[in-house]
């Protein structure tokens, strides 16, 4: 396969190395006429170093890098040691060292494309071309950093600073205070000290002279201890100030053709407070190379088509879909952790700072501290909005945060998802009817008595098949604006049909009811309502929530996403637009599936426990409107539903309704009278967000 890589930075060159080892043909394009030094130094974390070692770069990389024994954290003004992170021990903990490397690029090997990978950095032109008006660009994080260097020989010779320089241990040092900090680490074979001074991004230094830079730095850090002041005195005269920008979560990284994708900073630039920006780029390269090898092995034809820029290749499209599904939640969690690390380590909140300093005293220990169960300190531990992972105070100094950031296998995550979901996901995307038949075939293999098999809708009624008519999904593309969205869950965001079949078969055996009796009417209805009829003694919330909470654990591999759902949700979440899930499932069931698929968790969830009567009673959607604060603007809210009962509930609540033909026949969906009918959410995308409204483009809708 031929791959063009746009951008010869860390992400681009890492991908070139990985794909080159699999014998794919690579062409690297870069705007610079030659590859030159990029900056003073970067820190790289263990999970990324593992891949660089795997690609044969171990000796070269270690020869050019430094492995500090410790990161010492100091109170900036007082100068007393607050705690130490044992960096050298990370190799044993995470399988590779944490290194500091001088950031330079040597002349790269230019090889000679079926796929274009854009790794052109934070100000990516490719991103703007891909997303157009949906590209948010890079946004300020509120932080900035002065950067400067000092000669180690001068620092060692000075009586004030000599204690900071130990070329044997090569320790890094970090002085912290509210709103500012000073980080120092050795580079260039321990001959230079890199100095990074974080501060609030509230100074315009664009026209500064060297003298003004020096005066400003000394003014901001005037209260820091004498050793830091002396480092400034001995530093090189050149100082630069870099505002810290990040790229917020994007609606998509790839083109629908499967021929183009963004990676690295072009897709997800982030703050540097977990030392993860460069490492995440290496992860991207490892993950993308892995999924391309799985989908398009190098021993296949080098050209996937004669017109690769136009033709959609299902193998490439599936590969890029898998890459996004696996990588986006991971990256967005690390982005949040990185910014939280900066915010919390520079906090000016007195109580929070007290807990931070207390936590730093435990930073050298093997145990996570503080625990969330700590009645006093646990309230200062947060969770990622995207994945629910720990966000401890101090970022890199918090072991619980470090563990999930640094002990991660990007290749393994891709392989696991690809191998367990590729076949089913491909069938879902290509042919929903075939998928449902596929589910029946799985279930047949599990049930000895085939007379117990439920009757599955195929999406085409017997009458329609006999008449030879086919649904006409050719309605012209429309753009409609809304103030909020209410999503059903199963059949709209996910399809857990095989899990539900297995689940109700198990429950049917327990309560003595044939599963086909349950499955005939279960979709879109609350379990408690089904049990009220079939097994009244089980119709209580304690039993139902426990029963449904087990589904994501027992049948984790039996759920897939509805095509287009992740992309649509990512767009809505990236703009912090009002949305909620309104479902007949219980809270444990919904949260379990969302966690399993690493889908965004809404701020508002209306579940089976929230209402006395399930759909088609509109109460659930009326509650959803109230939670969004849009109870007086129901007509501006879109309900997305697949079941006739849910469609009727949304309409009765006064909302606009989009019906999906994912679980019922076209006739059944149309009979419920939605405003639009589509096959799935691949027909829906966000095109604009302005003046409190989000505009959707609905394409390939049903004529009815």
UniProtKB/TrEMBL annotation:
InterPro entries (UniProt xref): FAD-bd, FAD-dep_Monooxygenase_BioMet, FAD/NAD-bd_sf, HAD-like_sf, HAD-SF_hydro_IA, HAD_2, HAD_sf, PGP-like_dom2
Q: Which PANTHER family match?
A: HYDROXYLASE, PUTATIVE-RELATED, MONOOXYGENASE
Q: What is this protein called?
A: FAD-binding domain-containing protein
Q: What is the lineage of its organism?
A: Eukaryota, Fungi, Dikarya, Ascomycota, Pezizomycotina
Cross-referenced CDD domains, in alphabetical order? HAD_ScGPP-like
Pfam families for this protein: FAD_binding_3, HAD_2, NAD_binding_8
Q: Where is the signal peptide?
A: 1-16
Instruction: Look up the domain of life of the source.
Output: Eukaryota
Record keywords? FAD, Flavoprotein, Monooxygenase, Oxidoreductase, Signal
Which stretches make up the FAD-binding domain? 106-305
The record's comment on protein family reads: Belongs to the paxM FAD-dependent monooxygenase family.
**Molecular functions per Gene Ontology:** FAD binding; monooxygenase activity; phosphatase activity
